[in-house]
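I hope you will forgive my troubling you with a question about protein structure. Here, with my thanks, is the record as I have it:
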Amino acid sequence: MLRQRIITGVILVAVLLAAVLLLGNVAFTWVALAVFTIGAWEWSRLAGIGQAAMRLAFAGVFAGLGVFVALRAGPEARMLLVGIGAAWWVVVLGLLAVYHRGVGQRPGWHSLLTVAAFVTLLPAWLAVAGLHAVGWQWILFLVGIVAVADTGAYFSGRAFGKHKLAPELSPGKTREGVLGGLVGVALWALFGAWWLNLEPGIWVYFIGLCLVVALISVAGDLFESLIKREAGAKDSGRILPGHGGILDRIDSLTAAAPVFTIGLHWI
């Protein structure tokens, strides 16, 4: 299992680097839409849509909206959608704070998840495509924030973790782990401010933004854990051997990308 996970992970990194570095922005945008459409397909099952035809229709609607936005929406409309996506994660933080097991049995839960798929995935796709249009460095830096936060939290949690962050959702996550991840992200942000050639006057803001994005990425992970727990699923899918589904790999990114993009827009 570990060997399979490592092999799949290496392939994923290679595919990501190839897409980011070799594709033009138009091609990258369409490839990213395809990836997020697979995520929508997986989401439909977690939202309680059982029939394959209905799940295909769900993914088709998502892809159709993506195509419409890509071809017809101007920069201001796209940024508005990304802003809605960033605001959605404030709502998610509230949901995580009051979560208790069994909420998925309440009336309207599946309807909420159906709407949430579009509010989560569509803005995230637009944010990723927009960052790639600015420069490949921005995509890799954002992925680095998520990776550093996750890796730092893992090792810090193993070494110092005592207080559970969200025991009902992710028993392995600890507050000490999150703090360790934030330390790592702060160092990554310092490197990024230099690498991305930012003006010294905005370094403090940029580092603060990266820390916020790191925290939101944790919320993305926890929110998918919430959805899977209520759906009684271990993984979002089985398309990636040893890793589960697409959503299992982009859950943190779906939260981080819109917030990072809006934060950069404010600069």
Q: What stands out?
A: The CA atoms of residues 9 and 15 lie 10 Å apart. The mean pLDDT is 92. The beta strands are 164-166, 170-174.
